[in-house]
Specification:
Elements lengths: L1 H20 L6 H24 L2 E3 L2 E3 L4
Antiparallel strand pairs: 1-2
Length: 65
C-alpha cells in the first residue's frame, strides 16, 4: 500500500506540473478515478489479446503460429 501511495503522489505531482506548463487545470477527481480504472483496463486488454485474434495491415496477427 505504501508503494501504491508513493506512486500516486509522484504521478500526481508530475501530471500537475505538466498541466501547469500547458496552462491546463489538473483535475484530481479524474486522476483518482482513472487510477482505479486503469488496472482493470490493462488486465482486460491483456486477457482479450490472448483470446481474440485481430488483423493489422490486412494480415492476421497472432503470437501462436
Amino acid at each position: 500500500m505504501i508503494l501504491i501511495g508513493i506512486k500516486l503522489v509522484l504521478e500526481g505531482i508530475f501530471l500537475w506540473k505538466i498541466a501547469q506548463s500547458f496552462k491546463q487545470q489538473f483535475d484530481i477527481r479524474a486522476f483518482l478515478a482513472l487510477q482505479i480504472l486503469y488496472p482493470i483496463y490493462v488486465i482486460s486488454v491483456g486477457i482479450l489479446a490472448q483470446i481474440k485474434s485481430y488483423q493489422w495491415k490486412d494480415r492476421p496477427a497472432s503470437f501462436y503460429r
